Amino acid sequence: MAARIVAGVVAGAVAAAVLAAGSGVAGGGTAGHGIAGHGTAGGWSAGRGAREPARYGVREAARFSPPNAFVASPAVTYDMKLVPAGARIEVVQRGGHGRMSVSVRVEGLAAGRVYGAHVHQEECGGDPAAAGGHYQHREDPVRPSKDPAYANPENEVWLDFTTDAHGAGAATARQGWEFRPGGARSVVLHGMTGGAGARIACFTVPFEPASAEPVPFEPPGHRGR
After folding, report:
1. Is 193:116 a contact under the CB 8 Å cutoff?
2. Strands (DSSP E) along 53-197, which ranges?
3. What is the distance between the alpha carbons of residues 48 and 67, in angstroms, rounded to a whole number?
4. Fewest Cβ atoms nearer than 10 Å: which of 44, 56, 84, 199?
5. What is the value of pTM for the model shown?
């Protein structure tokens, strides 16, 4: 047991050191296959090639570390084989005008494998169950929710993806609704696609709206001015 704890602490420290060095993680945008840091997201597609300003946007990125890591990370891995310490994740949300999009992008996961991913109600914790259930636009009165009338990709945010030979993958969900204030707080990775599966990793994300009044969107380069 002591050996496993020490291994987890060492792996977390290595991941934190890589994160601090900024290897492949930038703070203001995405270049090539790199994953961006945090900030506001830009305009978003309104369909048929049109583009309009988002009322709000969120972009968060982090590297996974185990729950017992010496330096805590908002991205937690519960399965080091499928989601190694140091693997990266980026989540982007754009929303407004009664609809939104949520995108996930990962690097460094197990290669050539399918993963399930969903937006969950609570923040991540040391226990995989801490993230609560899937966020639902129309809430199932029965918990845990298993009724396909509620547990489906139209009523929830499903972000299933398949990694390539380098362990990278991505997915985007577009919905004709927005999150309730404070109702969505994380993205959980599962060991299989669909509505269920073991929780193998979790990333805490400050989805908007965080309150009744969403944070106005500010174009990149205008923050703090």
Report:
1. yes
2. 56-63, 75-77, 88-96, 99-107, 114-120, 161-162, 169-175, 186-190
3. 43
4. 84
5. 0.75
In whole angstroms, give the CA distance from residue 63 to residue 13. 11
- How far apart CA 56 and CA 49 sit, in angstroms, is 20
Which tens digits make up the pLDDT trace of 152-163? 999 999 999 999
Tokens 């979790």 label which residue?
202
Q: Sign of the C-alpha dihedral, residues 162, 164, 167, 171?
A: negative
| 206's tokens | 């400050």
Judge whether 46 and 55 are in contact, CB under 8 Å: no
CB 203 within 8 A of CB 186: yes
pLDDT tens, residue by residue, 161-204: 999 999 999 999 999 999 999 999 999 999 999 887 899 999 99
